[in-house]
Design a protein that fits this description.
Elements (H helix, E strand, L loop, with lengths): L3 E4 L3 H6 L3 H17 L5 E2 L8 E7 L2 E10 L3 E9 H7 L5
Parallel strand pairs: 1-5
Antiparallel strand pairs: 2-3, 3-4, 4-5
Length: 94
């Protein structure tokens, strides 16, 4: 299945806070992994149950990409960032 990607307007500011080498890996590897099978990754719980969380680790830092699969053909990325910041801030973007 082919998915269309859409990004929250603040994703650019998220990426500016991440090391440039990690950002390149996000663009080349991690977003492609999500596109292959977006429902394969961890669904969140509670008020965020419509979102998924893709996990990866770079340079001993845990990162998350929070996204939603909309209309079965659109992946909407809400936030990309370090694990400790993501979960407390994600609700401000929904």
């Amino acid at each position: 299945m082919i998915f269309k990607e859409e990004f929250h307007p603040k994703i650019k500011s998220d990426l500016k806070q991440i090391d440039k080498g990690v950002v390149e890996k996000i663009k080349i590897l991690h977003l492609n992994n999500i596109l292959q099978d977006p429902c394969r990754y961890e669904p969140l719980k509670g008020s965020l149950s419509n979102l998924y969380s893709y996990h990866f680790r770079e340079n001993k830092v845990e990162y998350r990409i929070a996204y939603e699969v909309k209309e079965e053909t659109v992946i909407f990325y809400y936030m990309i960032g370090k694990r400790e910041n993501l979960y407390k801030n994600i609700e401000t973007r929904i």
